[in-house]
TrEMBL record:
This is Uncharacterized protein. UDP-alpha-D-glucose binds at residues 105-106, 135. It is found in: Endomembrane system. The keyword Transmembrane helix applies. The keyword Membrane applies. Keywords: Cell wall biogenesis/degradation, Glycosyltransferase, Membrane, Transferase, Transmembrane, Transmembrane helix. The chain crosses the membrane at residues 16-34, 46-65, 539-560, 572-591, 629-649, 661-679. One of its GO terms (biological process) is plant-type primary cell wall biogenesis. Mn(2+) binds at residues 272, 296. It is a multi-pass membrane protein. InterPro entries: Cellulose_synth, Nucleotide-diphossugar_trans.
Length: 711
């Protein structure tokens, strides 16, 4: 029995409020559906059918969203109590997986910082191994890591000596650190390393003549002339060896491996899921730690004690034997003051994770998840590791290259029943869904000081493209035989399945958004009323439904520590996504299902232009590029402005129509209010991030054509 607990959990006191709210709102939805049905019987028309469809989809998404709030559980961990069961040298081994895919979109110096931040974890170094997966197959990345390994010899002892919290050198030196005797020397080394790496990246090649070490030359000799990122043999390099490499203070260092799996054009590589599965196998051969962490290359560690927090769950003698992973929700370092694009995902990363925790476990977010290895492999007892040989031996190397080959997975269950699951662009959420259907559990750990901090796009089009990818990925599995609504409801807690369903079908939010962005507007131009007028007994129901949904959403935001402006921006981005990324995901899904297109994981760019960053800091929308995603949003904005002006004209000419057209005017006015940054981008701005004039022109033309065709 433990004297003091490692972790505690308590149900949220707000759950009763949410349960009552859900009940009341559900009754209101039924009343609305009844009202629609009456309308359909008495005055059937396309408009009534459209509105019914829109409201049914809204009701479905609302209902699935409520599942997150019915039984939230808050957990706390107490790493200081760990000493009761384990001394440091009894901690389990830990393999850390970091994925990168493109040296130009993900600058290696950023990846180096992520790696250094975890290499310097407060964890016994003989238990720690870092594996970098390079899907870009780039010698530039390998070069950067060779430099990083040299710098780590100075950086690690420095972090530990002064017990730094920020162990990403870029963050540390950028934050006016306190001055210790070695500080300026280390800073100088860091700057030199950064400059060396940058020079090589800018030049685009490695100058082998300048290398004076045979091993290094041998490593780079694998980049033969036929070597491309899509076609190359596996490259596995040991950059730091535990028990061999020491830092400048004479302490052994963790292992550091560079892994670029074999690629050839004819073999599908399954994007990040494929990369992670390769790492599971390569690490199985090399170190075979019972726990591994999956981390994106842009998510540096913000707290060196994170592994201990994770151990509070895994080392608990009363741990649920079905506990598969501990998820540290994603948090970001580059969000501006009012979170212009709602990229912080306040509810998804806070309320939703604790919400699912009370239902059997949260989903895996792709990064910040510590897994038990045995959960993702076939037969944990059959270890691949060659125990009696050191990791640098020939046999180990041959086996590691073998498991990183393209053909290794042929006729195996990898990606289907073991490892990270294939067949979708959102391998993370899908894998956790499949695991939880098998009875595995997960827990959320969200300490006040973020465990990891990542990067979000800061240009609107990048945000839209990222969402397009996510929700296309969700549909791939949401509409497969592993749908949460069929398979999920059968094999997991049904409320947990509803939570998954919410994410998987979020793209359908575009149906009501598009209907509400067009139908009330078209009818407003004609001055024909489609909603109850203000004095109608049904009118208060509409008011209740609107305010009930918006006010609750706002409350959730504030209760999760956010602000009014951030909430406002998030609800705006919801409307924008509803007429861009979401419908595009549905179209993409249709085209891929019909075999008319293939899907691709477009890596988000982590490079930021200083002008764009400046505008983002000021909270100004970044349009700048011409893209179908932006065009569709802009068309809707122009159309609503146009319809609103005509609506106002009607009311001014005949004040009697105000009461009848009120709801339509309100919806259109609300859209206009939300579209304000787009009008600014079209008319008032002259900077490079303004709406491209061609996009404005096209939008106006489309709206004119619609007007001439229909009115
Ligand atoms: O073929 C690929 C493609 C991507 N990646 C890596 O995957 C990570 C995530 O890619 P990113 O472009 O940053 O995508 P995001 O949309 O920011 O990522 C979110 O969504 C992804 C699923 O779409 C999850 O995998 C991520 O963990 C989650 O942070 C990065 O480290 C990439 O290097 C690979 O290793 N191989
Ligand atoms: Mn990312």
């Amino acid at each position: 029995m433990l004297k003091a607990p490692f972790h505690t959990s308590k149900p949220s006191p707000t759950r009763w409020f949410y349960r009552i709210y859900t009940l009341v709102y559900t009754i209101a939805i039924f009343a609305l559906v009844y009202h629609h049905c009456c309308n359909l019987i008495h005055s059937p028309s396309f408009t009534t059918i459209f509105l019914l469809i829109a409201d049914l989809v809204l009701a479905f998404l609302w209902a699935t969203w409520q599942a997150f709030f019915l039984n939230p559980v808050f957990r706390q961990v107490f790493p200081e109590n760990l000493a009761q069961v384990a001394k440091e040298n009894e901690y389990p081994g830990l393999d850390l997986f970091i994925c990168t895919a493109d040296p130009f979109k993900e600058p290696p110096i950023g990846v180096v910082n992520t790696v250094l931040s975890v290499l310097a974890y407060d964890y016994p170094s003989e238990k720690l191994s870092i594996y970098l997966s390079d899907d870009g197959g780039s010698q530039l990345t390998l070069f950067a890591f060779m430099e990083a390994a040299k710098f780590a010899r100075h950086w690690l002892p420095y972090c530990k000596k002064y017990n730094l919290m920020d162990r990403s050198p870029e963050v540390y030196f950028g934050s006016n650190p306190s001055f210790f005797p070695e500080t300026s020397e280390i800073q100088e080394m860091y700057k030199n390393m950064r400059a060396t790496v940058k020079k090589v990246i800018d030049r685009g090649t490695i100058d082998l003549d300048q290398m004076n070490c045979d091993r290094t030359i041998k490593a780079f000799s694998k980049w033969t002339p036929g070597f491309t990122r899509h076609d190359h043999p596996a490259v596995i390099e040991i950059l730091l060896k535990n028990n061999v490499d020491k830092d400048v203070m004479g302490h052994y260092m963790p292992n550091l491996f560079y892994v670029s799996r074999e690629k050839n054009r004819g073999t599908p590589h399954h994007f990040k899921a494929g990369a992670l599965n390769t790492l599971i196998r390569v690490s199985g051969v090399m170190t075979n730690a019972p726990i591994f962490l999956s981390l994106d290359c842009d998510m540096y560690s913000n707290d060196p004690n994170t592994p201990l927090r994770m151990l509070c769950h895994f080392l608990d003698p009363n741990v649920d034997p079905k506990l598969a992973f501990v998820q540290f929700p994603q948090r970001f370092h580059n969000i501006n003051k009012n979170d212009t694009y709602g990229a912080e995902h306040v509810l998804e990363t806070r309320a939703c994770t604790v919400g699912m925790d009370g239902l059997g476990g949260t989903f895996f977010m792709g990064t910040g998840g510590f897994f038990r290895r045995k959960v993702l492999i076939e037969n944990p007892k059959e270890s691949q590791k060659i125990w009696n040989e050191p990791i640098q031996s020939k046999d180990v190397s041959t086996l590691a290259h073998h498991v990183a080959s393209c053909t290794y997975e042929d006729n195996t269950k990898w990606g289907q029943e073991i490892g990270f699951r294939y067949g979708t662009l959102v391998e993370d959420i899908y894998t956790s869904f499949r695991l939880q259907c098998l009875g595995w559990k997960s827990v959320t750990c969200n300490p006040t000081r973020a465990a990891f901090l990542g990067n979000m796009p800061i240009a609107l089009n990048d945000i839209l493209a990222q969402n397009n990818r996510w929700y296309m990925g969700m549909l791939q599995t949401g509409l497969s035989k592993f749908s949460p609504m069929t398979y999920g409801i059968k094999f997991m807690n049904p409320l947990q399945a509803l939570c998954y369903a919410h994410y998987h079908f979020r793209a359908f939010w575009s149906i009501p958004v598009i209907i509400y962005a067009l139908v009330p507007q078209f009818t407003l131009v004609n001055a024909s009323s489609i909603f109850p007028k203000v004095s109608d007994p049904w009118f208060p129901l509409y008011v209740f439904l609107f305010i009930g949904a918006y006010a609750k959403d706002f409350l959730d935001y504030v209760m999760n520590g956010s602000t009014f402006k951030r909430w406002w921006n998030r609800q705006r981005i919801w409307l924008i996504l509803g007429c861009s990324s979401y419908p595009f995901s549905i179209v993409d899904w249709l085209l891929t299902s019909l075999g008319m297109s293939t899907f691709e994981f477009n890596v988000t760019s982590k490079v930021s232009d200083s002008e764009i960053s400046k505008r983002y800091e000021e909270g100004v929308f970044e349009f700048g590029v011409e893209s179908p995603l932006l065009l569709s949003v802009n068309i809707v904005a122009v159309l609503n402005l146009f319809a609103f002006s005509i609506g106002i004209k009607h009311v001014l000419i005949n004040a009697g129509t105000f009461e009848e057209l009120f709801v339509q005017l309100f919806i259109t006015g609300f859209a206009v209010l939300n579209s304000w940054p787009l009008y600014e981008g079209m008319i008032l701005r002259s900077d490079k991030g303004k709406m491209p004039p061609k996009t404005t022109l096209k939008s106006v033309c489309v709206v004119l054509v619609i007007y001439l065709a229909f009115f």
